[in-house]
């Protein structure tokens, strides 16, 4: 039987269990390479946040041909600027072109790929074999990363894609860590797996619920997420009388998966030989992105530096508890039935907190100027989320408007300057937190 590890949650003062194999943390082999931390960048600001908080690489997309067309994404000129900014900071950029295309799109796709090639990203992410074929023909200088949508589940499939010109494979989420490790030991291609974020209830993300219920194609970037809706039973002869499938007054969430969180199992993931650890969330906010990237950056670095003394810091669990999330699980990594059952209650958790803003500039006297997202008042206690280490608590001593006039409150959708007790750096996240009683 797998051992069980306690996660004592700061979130709600209760103990929850996460399953996993027996812990035997060992020194890494001499040829060990620290895995890449790959973060989502749904727009330019999110790109800056990912860079600021320590991502090694980002994945982003243009206005077409990606599976997240409902997020802002990048125009062609913005994408060129994004690639330039990331490369200036030593961060790689992977462009998603992972839809399953139709006949009428082939010429437009070809033009898009040629445009991408001129921008020189580090790779393009593809699921459709036809687009792989076009990319090899039109932009052979750009690496191809195979999307998880292609549901790669065995090492012979990696051999096939290697012959097709693919350089990295995002392995199917249905695989266990044992299966992933076996694939990695074959050393066929680079490998990539998700370690945190929302999970799709369907097979490798290929779902038709949205197509049937809302006529929005989930495999072409327009998913309406009906797996997150609640469902009830209605008997034909009793219209209007709804019966929950499970006894819950809020309804039943038949297809609603839990969120993935692997912070407790960084040693196992790193020893498996995975090339890149991927964070889900191109449509998530910058507060989520900052907290998750920062947390996994610190955990990966801590284990790489000292495997024999590594432990899961309470601060990492707190950070991941702060972000808005469904119940956390380890997905399919350890083949635990309890971890892959649907999240029937659709319960979201997270410490009570407010994202105040992201520092635009920081000047002498601990003055920070930001665009206010949630109300902030003189005297409030805030946290400065620095890229490394525990967030710095600080009191708001004064607030001024753009004209330099003293004000008691910084209101949402306004620009204000806060005088804090402690300084910060441009790009740092300022948030206000309180704890449930």
Protein described:
By secondary structure, the protein is of the alpha/beta class. It folds into 2 domains: about 5-200 and about 255-350, Alpha-Beta Barrel (TIM Barrel), CATH 3.20.20; about 355-435, Beta Barrel (Elongation Factor Tu (Ef-tu), domain 3), CATH 2.40.30. It contains 11 helices and 24 strands. The strands form 6 sheets. An 8-stranded parallel barrel has the order 3-4-5-6-7-8-9-13, surrounded by 5 helices. Helix 9 (about 285-305) packs antiparallel against helix 10 (about 315-320). The longest helix is centred in the C-terminal third of the chain and has 20 residues, at about 285-305. It is globular.
Q: Strand order of the main beta sheet, please? A: 3-4-5-6-7-8-9-13
Q: Shape from CA axes? A: globular
What's the total number of strands? 24
The CATH superfamily of the largest domain bears the name Aldolase class I
CATH topology (level 3) name of the largest domain: TIM Barrel
Radius of gyration: 23 Å
CATH architecture of the largest domain: Alpha-Beta Barrel
Strand content: 25-35%
Helix content: 10-25%
The end-to-end span amounts to: 37 Å
Overall mean pLDDT = 84
Low-confidence stretches: 1-27
**What is the CATH top level name of the largest domain?**
Alpha Beta
Brief overview, please?
The protein has 437 residues and is an alpha/beta fold.
SSE topology sketch:
Blueprint: E1 4-8, E2 15-19, E3 36-40, H1 44-52, E4 57-61, H2 76-88, E5 92-96, H3 106-119, E6 123-126, H4 129-138, E7 143-146, H5 155-163, E8 168-170, H6 177-185, E9 190-197, H7 209-214, E10 232-234, E11 242-244, E12 259-261, H8 266-271, E13 276-279, H9 286-305, H10 314-322, E14 325-326, E15 328-329, H11 337-340, E16 348-349, E17 353-363, E18 367-372, E19 376-377, E20 381-385, E21 392-400, E22 409-410, E23 414-420, E24 429-433
Helix pairs in contact: 1-9, 3-4, 9-10
């Amino acid at each position: 039987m797998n051992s069980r590890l306690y996660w004592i949650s700061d979130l709600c003062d209760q103990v929850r269990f996460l399953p996993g194999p027996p812990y035997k943390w060992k020194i890494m082999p001499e040829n060990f390479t620290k895995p890449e931390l790959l973060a989502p960048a749904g727009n330019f600001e999110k790109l800056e946040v990912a860079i600021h908080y320590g991502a090694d690489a980002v994945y982003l997309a243009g206005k077409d041909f990606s599976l997240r067309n409902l997020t802002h994404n990048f125009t062609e000129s913005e994408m060129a600027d994004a690639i330039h900014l990331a490369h200036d900071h030593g961060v790689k950029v992977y462009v998603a072109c992972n839809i399953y295309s139709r006949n009428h799109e082939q010429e437009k796709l070809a033009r898009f790929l040629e445009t991408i090639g001129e921008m020189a990203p580090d790779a393009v992410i593809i699921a459709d074999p036809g687009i792989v074929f076009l990319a090899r023909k039109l932009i052979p200088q750009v690496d191809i990363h195979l999307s998880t949508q292609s549901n790669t589940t065995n090492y012979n499939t990696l051999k096939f894609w290697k012959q097709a010109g693919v350089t990295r494979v995002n392995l199917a989420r249905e695989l266990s860590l044992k299966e992933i490790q076996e694939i990695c030991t074959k050393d066929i291609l680079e490998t990539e797996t998700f370690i945190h974020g929302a999970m799709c209830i369907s097979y490798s993300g290929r779902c038709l619920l949205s197509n049937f219920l809302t006529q929005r194609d989930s495999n072409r970037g327009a998913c309406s997420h009906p797996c997150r809706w609640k469902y009830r039973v209605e008997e034909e002869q009793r219209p209007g009388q709804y019966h929950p499938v499970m006894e819950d007054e809020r309804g039943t969430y038949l297809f609603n998966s839990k969120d993935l969180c692997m912070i407790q199992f960084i040693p196992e993931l790193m020893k498996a030989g995975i090339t890149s650890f991927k964070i889900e969330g191109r449509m998530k906010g910058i507060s989520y992105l900052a907290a998750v990237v920062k947390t996994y950056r610190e955990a990966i670095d801590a284990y790489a530096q000292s495997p024999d003394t590594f432990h899961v810091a309470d601060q990492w669990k707190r950070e991941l508890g702060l972000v808005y999330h469904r119940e956390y699980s380890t997905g399919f990594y350890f083949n635990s039935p309890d971890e892959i059952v649907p999240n029937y209650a659709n319960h979201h958790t997270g410490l009570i907190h407010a994202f105040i803003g992201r520092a635009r500039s920081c000047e002498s006297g601990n003055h920070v100027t930001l665009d206010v997202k949630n109300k902030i008042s003189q005297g409030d206690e805030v946290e400065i989320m620095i890229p490394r280490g525990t967030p710095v608590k600080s009191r708001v001593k004064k607030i001024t408007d753009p004209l330099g006039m003293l004000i008691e409150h910084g209101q949402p959708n306004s620009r204000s300057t806060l005088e804090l007790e402690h300084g910060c750096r441009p790009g740092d996240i300022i948030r206000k937190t309180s704890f449930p009683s």
